[in-house]
Amino acid sequence: MYLNANSSATSRLRNLLIMTLLITNLVCLLFGAGQVVLDMTFGGGGHTKAILNMVPEVTVLALDRDPTAISLAQQLAKEHSGRVKPLLGRFSELEALLSNMNIKPSSIDAVLLDAGCSSMQMDQAERGFALSKDGPLDMRMDGERYPDMPCAADVVNTLDQQALASILTAYGEERNARKIASAIVEARRVNPITRTQQLASVVAGSFPAAVVYARKDRLHRSAHVATKTFQALRIFVNDELNELHAGLRVAQTALKPGGRLCVITFHSLEDRLVKRFLQGDDLSNLDHYHFSPRKQDNRKEKLAKKKDGGSVYWVPLQRKVIMPEKEDVEKNPRGRSAKLRAVLRR
What we know:
By secondary structure, the chain is α/β, with parallel strands linked by helices. The protein has 14 helices and 9 strands. It has helices at residues 8-20, 24-30, 46-54, 67-79, 94-100, 119-123, 152-158, 161-172, 177-188, 196-205, 227-238, 240-254, 268-279, 326-331, and strands spanning 36-39, 59-64, 84-88, 108-114, 215-216, 222-223, 255-265, 314-316, 339-345. α8 (161-172) crosses α9 and α9 (177-188) crosses α10. It is globular, with a radius of gyration of 20 Å. Mean pLDDT is 85; it is low at 15-22 and 291-301.
């Protein structure tokens, strides 16, 4: 059932992923006209637009939790009458949204899930996701949809030092979590931390100057020492891992036999969760998976596995996860940590 690792199809998949980092292109190669595709992370609409342009008569269900993204989806729906159906909601709300549209389980042909923060959100300083752009320390993917939902500024200004350190460890895999948490608590005693670059400066101030840009990415470029702190806060504020798990469960229910699921992740926590879900692990106690890679299989974790190591629900479409090569990352630095997994629903 695997795509041959040396086949021209796999080569095309890798090139398409790396050129644009749109898993849509993989779907376009594997799916035919007239099908129903669920884009679970509409964002700026890149995936959906590619599908509409490349797959004749396809219908796209365009989900996003961000009202700004849904506004773009609604505009696209006007341009492609009947082919785009915007859905505003989180992954955990998707089952109800599909039911309200009278879309039954086992009826969708393909699902795309591009985990994490969208480029559109990262590029808007006022959303507070990027440490390189000064803006309010917000990070809520839902925007103002839930006015009472705590933002990142609420987290850094109200939680105690131990709680902050736990968040940085769990969701940022930050080795210096205690040091950074201590610096945040000390800084907020003087002034509340309300801006992105204010937080970045507080984190940087807890390290010697030579260390601030000592970390390296896959291109061996300097990475700011606060990068993992921002990741951790974003994941915590938006409950991203629990939402991702909820989205995978809905995809498993919604896909028809033979339907395809394509998931792209950008950091190890997401990818670890996706990999284990597709292998059939029991993720009912998700907190267990926040901290460290599994060292060995636990029989109690094997909820739905076949003797060949695969899941009773999924068949991998390639033997290994697809990742960008170094030269391709140079062309698209944002994709340096991207991992693509594609599976077929049994």
